[in-house]
Design brief:
homodimer, alpha/beta, Aspartate Aminotransferase, domain 2, Aspartate Aminotransferase, domain 1, 7-stranded mixed beta sheet, 3-stranded antiparallel beta sheet, 13 helices
Chain lengths: 381, 381
């Protein structure tokens, strides 16, 4: 075969649902010399990562660390460790990731009861309570920030519903972590997972997870080991914990990147970081509406870091995204499932959440509309 | 909390069982700007990676790509996709990774029959045939290059045994890929996995895998989906294949690194690369014996890229490795399982497999022996 040329990836402005823009110092950190996974200097890096993750997760949870896979591996980690065949899971489904949680739970041999809502809507505690019908569940799971729709799920009151059905409370925090308050301990979340390529602004490849003491107790009582050896927390905790027992070879350079990304988040300050996301998210929403476009999610449940905007009548989705990519170097995301062809998903995540990016993106969308001769007329809301 | 300082990892010379030394251009590639996982430019990177992997795997297999996890995720990929509850697996166990394969197969609900050998020994086809006792198996699995012992398992004749028991032939190629001929098609291997942090000299985080058409047929006939959603090849093949359907967000920058690492291997030429490993491996073995040390594995089954050397009587393992790390900046590996405290494992993998590294390592070991006042006297073999 002909040997390919060295890579020279073009510079895009990543404004889709992830991966997001990566800070130069994170990319530099990833290219530092590789250390061995048992090197004393690397073990210190691991401890610092775990400490910083506890801060962004808003938790004191001992069992807090990144799994060696992308966000979906984090999702699977929760279910393979917390469920056993015959367990019962109550899962909120209002987008791709709730759907995926239900599927993963079923593959663990669990009986799954779903709570359904329209994509873009969120759940009240009463929705979960009604679906539970007074029955017992092992886990109750919901998506804190639905990457497929742009909806922010409030966590208030969910702990009480989980308690009433005897369940651990699980949350998908893939798109929330680092971009809005997560606060696992405040809301009584027992297990959560995230990804690095959203509001932490690190390349994809790691899945931060965190488990409460109660979740650890449940895992300690398992009759049989987790069906996944690779994601078995009983084994992995021995490497990330005190014993440093070899399990698998940690993705060293990815972890360097996460270390730097977390450092940047803490140096900015979490409150300032969340406020920045709120401010730019609001500016984007206002700008899109000023272009005559309407947003998929109602104002009170919009994620600042991910906006789903409706495509106007007659607008060609694929052609529009190609135009934006080729003419402006901007990547946005298309819709998934029932939203395919109907929306664009625009991310303002972490390092990329800036006023110039908002302005450029709005200008690009305006040009994409003009290129197709489409005029949008959003009724004043 | 106090925010940690930016990372400045010390430069080690990685001469353990992996991760191995990484070429500067691979580290640079990993710090290129992140692309979206559906960006047309990134899709071309994926195709080039798959094409180059086919060359190093020695296969025409369509289903060839890196999984988004470390080598152990590659192992799990084979078993969760090829086994179903009640399936039967015949597994060769002569080190950590055969042991791990048996465990992973059991967690897939398979009935596992092991073929056992002393750690450091290899199997003959007759060993497998005798263990099979004329029974049927779904898979027959062995380790091509045992990272825990340094033994090279010949593949000749294994296909016929697998055929006789109706099994797919599976091979762990973690430490062989890129350092010695793998040649899946020549030996009739149906499914293989590897890691990037050994003889491909890329940081850890990806697991190249390859599946024959026969293995694909077996997967297509599954009654139930794989127990792992994250590693479900039926879904992942749609992303790496023609449809480009979103499954999970690929670890973009890790894949940049693998692209460059594969490019370097092909630019060197595989024959030249394997010869380099043979030459330096032989030089290391001769040098260790000249120091009066003896090797764990018999000459005819030694891996050139990984050498297990016996520690002499009275030598303190941990103190010796600390000395080597602190005084020479060299990392070597300790023994695992029954070999713990008895050997060091010295890697000459990929980019780090050079004459200067061999010489420096020998000088370091000589100094480590002297520092403890230990004299080794290897009986002339």
């Amino acid at each position: 075969m002909q040997i390919p040329a060295p890579l020279v990836p073009p510079k895009r402005l990543l404004m889709g649902p992830g991966p997001s823009e990566v800070a130069p110092s994170v990319l530099r950190a990833m290219s530092a010399p590789t250390l061995g996974h048992l090197d004393p200097d690397f073990l210190r890096v691991m401890d610092e990562i775990a400490d910083m993750l506890r801060v962004v997760f808003g938790t004191e949870n001992r069992l807090t660390m990144p799994m060696s896979g992308t966000g979906s591996a984090g999702m699977e980690t929760l279910f393979v460790n917390l469920l056993q065949p015959g367990a019962r899971a109550l899962v909120g489904v209002n987008g791709v990731f709730g759907t995926r949680m239900a599927e993963v739970a079923r593959r663990c041999g669990a009986e799954v009861v779903t709570v359904e809502a329209e994509w873009g809507q969120v759940f009240s505690p009463e929705d979960f309570a009604a679906a539970a019908q007074g029955q017992r569940f092992d886990v109750m799971a919901l998506v804190h920030a639905e990457t497929s729709t742009g909806a922010a799920q409030p966590l208030d009151g969910m702990r009480a519903v989980a308690d009433a059905c005897g369940a651990l409370l699980l949350a998908d925090c893939v798109t929330s972590l680092g971009g809005m308050p997560v606060e696992l301990d405040r809301y009584g979340v027992d297990a959560a997972y995230s990804g690095t390529q959203k509001c932490l602004s690190c390349p994809p490849g790691l899945a931060p997870v965190s488990f409460s003491a109660r979740a650890e107790e449940i895992m300690a009582q398992r009759a049989a080991p987790a069906q996944s050896w690779y994601l078995d927390l009983g084994l992995i905790a021995k490497y990330w914990g005190g014993e440093r027992a070899y399990h698998h070879t940690a993705p060293i350079n990815q972890l360097y990147g996460l270390h730097e990304a977390l450092r940047l988040a803490l140096e900015e300050g979490l409150e300032a970081r969340y406020a920045r996301h709120q401010q730019q998210g609001a500016a984007l929403a206002a700008g899109l509406e000023a272009l005559g476009l309407s947003l998929w999610v109602e104002p009170e449940h919009r994620l600042a870091q991910l906006t789903s905007v409706r495509l106007p009548e007659g607008f060609d989705d694929a052609r529009g995204r190609r135009f934006l990519l080729e003419e402006f170097g901007i990547e946005v995301g298309g819709g998934l499932g029932p939203m395919a062809g109907k929306v664009w998903r625009i991310g303002l995540m972490g390092h990329g959440c800036t006023r110039p990016n908002v302005e450029l993106c709005l200008r690009g969308i305006e040009a994409a509309l003009a290129e197709q001769g489409v005029t949008a007329s959003h009724p004043a809301s």
